Amino acid sequence: MNRAEGLACNCGTQLGEPLPNLMTNPRSQQPSGAHDARVQDIDPELQRIVARVAPGARIQRAVRLGIDDGASADQATAKSAGYGVPIRIDVEVGPERRSFVLHGTSANDFGHDRRADRAAELLLAADTYGSIPRHVRALEVGAFRRDGTSVSLTDTEEFYLLTQYVQGHAYAEDLRRIAQTRVARLEDVERVHAMADYLTTLHSPTNGRVATYQRSLRDLLGSGEGIFGIVDAYPAETEGASARRLEQIESRCLQWRWRLKQREARLRRIHGDFHPFNVLFDERGDVQVLDTSRGSVGDPADDVTCMAANFVFFAVEDADAWRGAFASLWRKFWDHYLAKSGDDELLSVAAPFLAWRLLVLACPVWYPNLSSVARARLLSLAEVALDSDRFDPEMADAVFS
Predict the structure, then answer these.
(1) Number of other residues whose CB lies within 10 A of the CB of residue 195
(2) How far apart are CA 217 and CA 60, in angstroms?
């Protein structure tokens, strides 16, 4: 149950069900279908929330508002879904009568399935309601603790996250050494195998809902960190990456979304940003990872292509480095993962994920020192992958021919 809904009474309920101990409001001026809480049934936490914006206020009534109380159930225009169930709160502050509305958010498949999504919606409302003429004012934004009590976030600005520190060196350091020496040592092969083994273990089955997998595809395409956001970051007429070329790549990626939408059986636990700056090797040679992303669920191709693309990237300015070291590591990474995971379908879905990662690596905002020739090489691999029904790792050789 959404905690905001439960505040109208002092007991639990399931989302979408009538709140216990509430009676339908008999007053004719109230919308039909609203549920009215007796004062003695009101959760004390609701009183504390109100007191923060109206000290001394006494709640007289809490009414759960319907999604579309003005329509009959059989009307064609009747609305049956919404993003939350607001509660009207009528109070007395001395001789003055005032009313507030407590807004919560409900988990659903319209981009609100994660707690972070629902927090973002309410924070955005708090930040923007005051910018629109004649809009209702936002008085407080807050959150509920695990014990059901509330905490105000009204006076906060940016958020932070405190994590533990892990010893180790970023795998990017290894790739830079290999690029300089054009030699892959035995330990480099072992680390490629270790990363593939880690991913094989990580990619365990999770809730295979169609909506969850489709959400991951929407994020791949349409999020600010996804393909659309990265393409928008390219300066106009970037050499090697013209607007027309980027438009065509974007269009091909969108076509791939329709090919993948019903493959929810592929949904797995993933890292979501498995690149060489997020992968550490400790003194024992064990893999440690940083900064999981994308909700940590999606297609395994996301992680595999994210790391694999970097074997091409770190060699893209030097064909000899590719032929001398990186081509072998690239193949060993693909081969080891495919053999250990048994995921025969991965190469048939990899293209848009690989294209996304190559778009990031070719983007001047992220890598401004990359030459236009190197940028064009990366995008050419994305194009070849997107034009093929099944990706073949051997396609990468053409980038350096």
Answers:
(1) 24
(2) 47
- Give the DSSP letter of residue 245: H
Find out whether 34 and 22 touch, Cβ atoms under 8 Å: no
Dihedral angle over CA of 23, 26, 29, 34, nearest 10 = 20
Q: Are 231 and 246 in contact (CB under 8 A)?
A: yes
C-alpha to C-alpha distance for 113 and 212, rounded to whole angstroms: 8
* Side chain identity at residue 296, one-letter code: S
Q: How far apart are CA 305 and CA 299, in angstroms?
A: 11
CA dist., res. 210 & res. 261, Å (int): 8
Residues 6+ apart with CB under 8 A from 209: 264, 267
Cα–Cα separations (whole angstroms), residue 135 to 50, 130, 141: 20, 7, 16
The arithmetic mean of pLDDT across residues 279-287, rounded, is 95
Strands 297-298 and 287-289: unpaired
Query: What tens digit of pLDDT does each residue of 31-69 get?
Result: 434 456 556 578 889 999 999 999 999 999 998 887 766
The interaxial angle of helices 243-260 and 372-386, nearest 10 deg, is 30
CA distances from 266 to 121, 199, 256, 311 (A): 29, 14, 15, 25
In three-state secondary structure terms, 384 is helix
For residue 313, give the H/E element and its range.
helix 300-313
Q: Give this prediction's pTM.
A: 0.84
SS3 track for 49-90: HHHHHCCCCEEEEEEECCCCCCCCCCCCCCCCCCCCCCEEEE
Q: How far apart are CA 294 and CA 307, in angstroms?
A: 16
Closest to 141 (Cα-Cα) out of 149, 151, 153, 129: 153
Find where tokens 């590591």 sit. 329
> What confidence tens digit (pLDDT) does each residue in 240-256 have?
999 999 999 999 999 99
